[in-house]
Write a structure and sequence with these properties.
By secondary structure, the protein is mainly β. It has a domain at 64-156: Immunoglobulin-like. The chain has one helix at residues 7-12, and strands at residues 43-45, 52-54, 64-65, 69-72, 76-82, 92-96, 99-106, 125-132, 143-147, 150-156. The strands form three sheets. Strands 3-8-7-6 form a four-stranded mixed β-sheet, with no helix packed on it. A four-stranded antiparallel β-sheet has the order 4-5-10-9, with no helix packed on it. The longest helix is centred in the N-terminal third of the chain and has 6 residues, at 7-12. The chain is flat, with a radius of gyration of 26 Å.
Length: 171
C-alpha cells in the first residue's frame, strides 16, 4: 500500500499519527485577485475558492475607521491616534463619562488620475472612531492636543473611592 506522505511527515520526517488534520495536499488553495480600487480592498475568498466576495462585516459607505492606542496612567486614560493631514479645527471630538467619539476628514489636496498611481494605500475621506472607556472620566477636565500629526486626548479618571464631607448650613 503506497500512501502519499502528509505535509507534516515530509516536514518532520516522522510517520503519520493516523489523523488527516495535517494533510494540505488534498484541497486546492483558495485564491483571490488583487484589488483594483479602494472599493475592492476588503475581499475574501468564498467557499468554492473561485470568486472573491465582500466581507460581511465591511463598513457601509466610504467612511474609514481611525486606529487608536488607549492606555492608562496613574490618574488618566490616554488616547493617541494619527491624524496627519487633518487640521485640528477639522476634528470633532465628543466626550461623555464612558465614551469618546472622534470624527474628521482627510481630503486630497490635488486630483491625480487613477491610471497614474503605481500604489495607492493612503486613506482619503471621512473617518470616525467610537471608544468605550473602561472607567468613568471627568469630562470637564479632559484635554486634547495635536502635534506632528499625533492627536493625544487626556481623560482624567474619576476616583469613585474619593469621599468628601459636606457641612450642613443652617438657615
Amino acid at each position: 500500500m503506497n500512501m502519499k506522505r502528509s505535509f507534516f511527515e515530509r516536514l518532520s520526517g516522522n510517520p503519520s499519527t493516523g489523523n488527516d488534520f495535517d494533510s494540505f495536499d488534498d484541497e486546492p488553495l483558495p485564491t483571490a485577485t488583487l484589488p483594483r480600487n479602494k472599493k475592492d480592498v476588503r475581499m475574501r475568498v468564498n467557499n468554492t475558492g473561485n470568486r472573491p466576495e465582500p466581507f460581511s462585516n465591511a463598513p457601509s459607505g466610504d467612511e474609514g475607521q481611525l486606529p487608536v492606542d488607549v492606555h492608562q496612567t496613574q490618574s488618566d486614560i490616554v488616547i493617541r491616534t494619527f491624524v496627519a493631514g487633518v487640521r485640528p479645527d477639522e476634528l470633532n471630538i465628543s466626550i461623555n463619562r464612558d465614551m469618546v467619539e472622534i470624527e474628521g476628514a482627510r481630503m486630497e489636496r490635488e486630483q491625480i488620475a487613477d491610471s497614474d498611481y503605481f500604489t495607492r494605500e493612503l486613506f482619503w475621506g471621512s473617518f470616525s472612531r467610537t471608544i468605550l472607556l473602561p472607567q468613568e472620566i471627568d469630562v470637564d477636565a479632559s484635554s486634547a492636543s495635536a502635534k506632528d500629526g499625533l492627536l493625544t486626548i487626556i481623560l482624567p479618571r474619576l476616583d469613585k473611592t474619593k469621599q468628601t464631607k459636606l457641612r450642613v448650613k443652617a438657615g
